Design the sequence.
């Protein structure tokens, strides 16, 4: 075996009642058969309090030894076994310990000098991490970056890329064979059918549940149970099945008062971006086709007195995150968008019913108007931030805290209305015991403010646009996508903070039941809490979360509305076949006999009536100046 050399810095300590004097000595030690790399540092001299310092060592060659066996033999014996031998140069003046750290193994070999100048091996210590842990050091574990599959992201890809980069996560734009932590889909839960773990940003059944007809039915069910609580949704009729009912009711209204001439808006069931929407003033104007060509949709009362800014009609696009269904968790983005019409508003008449730039706020329609204003400013242009509009209203004396509180209530009530059927869809696609991902989803709520500042729900989008660029004509007939600062400001924050909330590396905090309950029914929902939402940013480089939890934070005010959800839970529990969503006549009779009897049905109906009467009684107290209660939020 060839000789190998290592350069060692040795600290010598003088003690035995005298002040310690540190003296650095450079020596060369011949170390046959030691490990590939080692650092040597002197430990405390015997009987002193001097601290030890790790010293770097340079060494070549391969290790054939197993350092660390406890031995009290002479260093020559140790050397013969492949252990480390220390030079005796300048080391026989004092008795002290020396420590050799063998890099790559994490082991530490300690030796002690004897009065005759020889060295003996004392022991091999635990690895460095264990020693540091015993000494109180906290070892930070290097965390594996969260992986995101963006292969199905579609139009939200650019905002998603920026968000992933800000979080320092890892993107897989083409997917990968091994599972990712998060899958971002552009359309539906079924964009990728082969996911058995991780998290997907879509719920199964959400697209179907938020179509115009199904949303109207869900809200109507709640209106029948709690009419005053769900008065934020315009009266609606489902086409074509309720066409006769619609025409009969409108004719009756006009017969009672000839001066009444309401306007209605017709929306196709699966329409989006304003496609197929038009206004009518008489049922005969409905473009209704029969037979197999019949178009399904809804017809709603048109809000004739909206709040105007700069004499223009506008609506609010609010982003809402459903983090989970069980337990139900809802977050609302503190920042949203306002989309303005591009033609000065006038109340609808037979002459202007076809003026879509006056009556319809859809961005996809107004962007084609010659009056549409693209602006880098957040407070001007045809698309602005919600905060800029609220500040402008506040400057005019509007109680924006009250407005924001009403909007939060509208969102929570709407989600409560759709959750029962959504849970049935979820059960059908991912039944208990079947491998599958967990889900979350960002929804787009379109809300209109009336002249009296009451919020009205227009629709809920299961796939709100997350595009951060817009199409612009840069030359006659030549269109390009250019960045939109307003869209980027809002949408990147929503996506980034949604990912932060869904980070699989953060354990879900245990929320005390009392805190989770929130405020009592009828209490005002504050616009901002005194304690801000805690950011889950470990690096301190990200802003605070732009998403505010509203449920279960305010659950005490709204839990009494979750009556239909309890029935849905029984339905799900009763389903005999996993993945089944329908009950046949025989199964339904068995369901009723198993779970219900006449007294239970009567009790359920009585509970419904009592809750409804309770809400009405509370609202009367509010109107008379009594104490606030469950009838209203404020």
Sequence:
């Amino acid at each position: 075996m060839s000789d190998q050399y290592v350069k060692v810095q040795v600290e010598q300590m003088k003690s035995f009642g005298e002040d310690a004097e540190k003296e650095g000595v450079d020596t060369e030690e011949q170390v046959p058969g030691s490990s590939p790399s080692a650092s040597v540092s002197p430990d405390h001299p015997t009987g002193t309090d001097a601290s030890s310092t790790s010293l770097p060592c340079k060494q070549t060659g391969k290790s054939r030894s197993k350092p660390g066996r406890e031995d009290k033999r002479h260093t020559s014996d140790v050397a013969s076994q492949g252990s480390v031998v220390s030079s005796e140069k300048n080391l026989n003046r004092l008795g002290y310990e020396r420590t050799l750290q063998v890099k790559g193994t994490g082991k530490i070999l300690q030796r002690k000098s004897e009065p005759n100048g020889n060295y003996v091996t004392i022991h091999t210590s635990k690895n460095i991490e264990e020693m540091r842990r015993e000494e109180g050091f906290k070892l930070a574990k290097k965390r594996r970056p969260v992986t995101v599959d963006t292969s199905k992201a579609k139009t939200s890809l650019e905002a998603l890329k920026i968000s992933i980069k800000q979080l320092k996560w890892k993107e897989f734009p083409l997917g990968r064979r091994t599972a990712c932590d998060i899958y971002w889909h552009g359309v539906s839960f079924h964009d990728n059918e082969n996911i058995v773990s991780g998290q997907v940003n879509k719920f199964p059944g959400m697209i179907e549940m938020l179509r115009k007809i199904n949303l109207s039915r869900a809200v109507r069910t709640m209106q029948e149970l709690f009419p005053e609580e769900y008065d934020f949704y315009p009266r609606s009729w489902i086409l074509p099945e309720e066409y006769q009912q619609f025409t009969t009711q409108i004719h009756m209204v006009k017969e009672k008062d000839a001066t009444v001439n309401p306007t209605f808006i017709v929306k196709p069931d699966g329409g989006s971006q304003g496609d197929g929407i038009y206004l009518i003033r008489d049922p005969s104007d409905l473009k209704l086709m029969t037979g197999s060509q019949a178009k399904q949709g809804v017809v709603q009362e048109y809000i004739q007195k909206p709040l105007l800014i700069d004499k223009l009609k506008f609506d609010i696009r609010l982003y809402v995150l459903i983090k989970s269904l069980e337990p139900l968790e809802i977050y609302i983005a503190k920042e949203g968008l306002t989309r303005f019409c591009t033609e000065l508003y006038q109340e609808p008449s037979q002459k202007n019913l076809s003026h879509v730039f006056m009556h319809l706020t859809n961005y996809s329609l107004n962007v084609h108007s010659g009056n549409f204003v693209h602006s880098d400013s957040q407070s001007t242009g045809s698309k602005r931030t919600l905060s800029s509009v609220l500040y402008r209203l506040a400057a005019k004396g509007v109680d924006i805290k009250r407005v924001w509180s009403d909007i939060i209530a509208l969102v929570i009530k709407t989600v409560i209305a759709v959750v029962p059927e959504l849970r049935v869809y979820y059960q059908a696609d991912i039944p208990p015991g079947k491998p599958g991902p967990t889900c979350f989803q960002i929804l787009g709520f379109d809300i209109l403010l009336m002249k009296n500042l009451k919020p009205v729900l227009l629709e809920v989008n299961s796939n709100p646009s997350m595009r951060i660029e817009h199409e612009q004509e840069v030359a006659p007939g030549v269109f390009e996508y250019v960045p939109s600062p307003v869209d980027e400001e809002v949408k990147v924050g929503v996506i980034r903070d949604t990912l932060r909330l869904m980070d699989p590396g953060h354990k879900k905090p245990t929320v005390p039941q009392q805190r989770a309950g929130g405020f009592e029914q009828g209490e005002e929902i504050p616009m901002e809490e005194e304690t801000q939402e805690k950011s889950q940013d470990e690096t301190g480089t990200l802003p605070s979360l732009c998403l505010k939890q509203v449920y279960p934070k305010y659950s005490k005010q709204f839990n009494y509305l979750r009556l239909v959800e309890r029935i849905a839970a029984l339905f799900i529990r009763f389903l005999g076949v996993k993945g089944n969503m329908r009950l046949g006549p025989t199964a339904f009779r068995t369901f009723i006999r198993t779970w219900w009897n006449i007294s239970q049905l009567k009790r359920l109906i009585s509970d419904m009536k009592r809750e409804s009467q309770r809400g009405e009684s509370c609202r009367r107290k509010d109107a008379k100046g009594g104490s606030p209660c469950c009838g209203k939020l404020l």
Q: What stands out?
A: The chain has 16 helices and 25 strands. The first strand starts at residue 5 and ends at 12. Confidence is low (pLDDT under 50) at residues 1-97, 510-522, 529-533, 622-634. The radius of gyration is 36 Å.
